[in-house]
Amino acid sequence: MHVLAPAKINVFLRITGRRPDGYHLLDSLMVPINLCDEINLEAWNVERGTWNDQETITVTCDDPTMPTDETNLAYKAARLLCKEAEVKAHISIDLRKRIPAGAGLGGGSSDAAAVLKGLNVLLSLGFDEQRLCSLATRLGADVPFFIPCRPARVQGIGETLTLLPALPPKWFVVVVPSFGISTLWAFRRFDELSSQEDMVGAIELSDRQWPEGKLLVNDLERAVIPVYPLIRELKEKLLQLGAESTLMSGSGSAVFGMFAGRLAAERAAKPLEKLGKTFIVEHLNK
To answer: Which band of pLDDT confidence, cut at 50, 70 and 90, is reported for residue 207?
Structure first.
């Protein structure tokens, strides 16, 4: 089975609190974009019955920097699904990476969700979307979003999704610098710089339009930009080149600018190519 795993951008990302166990509570508008990893899945010799450790899961990848052992999130997704279904299977996952790692674009999370959905079909498990989302929550905060994989308000620690109607067409220029940023580091630095008073409350949002410019805020920028000033430079350049708005996605390092049309996005992208990998993309409504 050949499946696509789209990247995402955070149109806004607010940190609304922190649980006693240290997990941050978020409020974000996330949209998938047509920058995709490609995954080839195979599964065979399926046996239902008592779970045991005799299954085989292999992961291969065209990016030599990506782990292909049990630390890979796609591997974890396959193993979790088989354990939940009490199925023994031989599974092959071949990843073709197009989404840069450490960029805040959700590539690993999207791969994991695509594996959950693909194996659900290949192994004829019959899990519904709600059950897949429940499994996805156990893999990571961004993974549940990629199960329905459409524009959504994402809250809590990523487990609370409010799916949105189709958003009007927009084009994006996404620039990924040569460095990646650790999500764990970004949140820890945010905690060092912030107090409880800095946390925001609920945001009013129309479910049929892109948010107003004043709402396009990523709270993690205050932690990341002082250490990585190129992100501020990219935001400024995108605005100079005609972007309606611009923001760092997730914990970075990717920065995106929003444009009304493809031609404007193409004109803006060219001067930015020397500053990082540059992609011209559309958002996906489904």
So the answer is: low
Look at strands 56-61 and 87-96 and give their pairing: parallel
Active site residues: 8, 142
Other Cβ atoms closer than 10 A to 60: 12
Q: Look at residues 211, 272, 210 and name the one whose alpha carbon lies nearest to residue 241.
A: 272
Dihedral angle computed from the Cα positions of residues 161, 162, 166 and 167, in that order, rounded to the nearest 10 degrees: -90
Q: State the Cα–Cα distance between residues 250 and 219, nearest whole angstrom.
A: 9
For residue 138, what is the DSSP state? Answer: T
Nearest to 245 by CA among 213, 203, 204, 283: 213
Burial class of residue 183, CB neighbours in 10 A (0-12, 13-18, 19+)? middle
Tens of pLDDT, residue by residue over 74-85, are 999 999 999 999
Amino acid 23: pLDDT: 85
Lowest mean pLDDT among 85-99, 116-130, 133-147, 193-207: 193-207
Distance CA 251, CA 243 (A): 21
Where do the domains of the chain lie?
2-163, 171-282
3-state secondary structure of 82: helix
On whether the 171-282 domain is CATH 3.30.70.890, my answer is yes
CATH number for the domain formed by residue range(s) 2-163: 3.30.230.10
Q: How far apart (Å, rounded) are the C-alpha atoms in residues 2 and 93?
A: 10
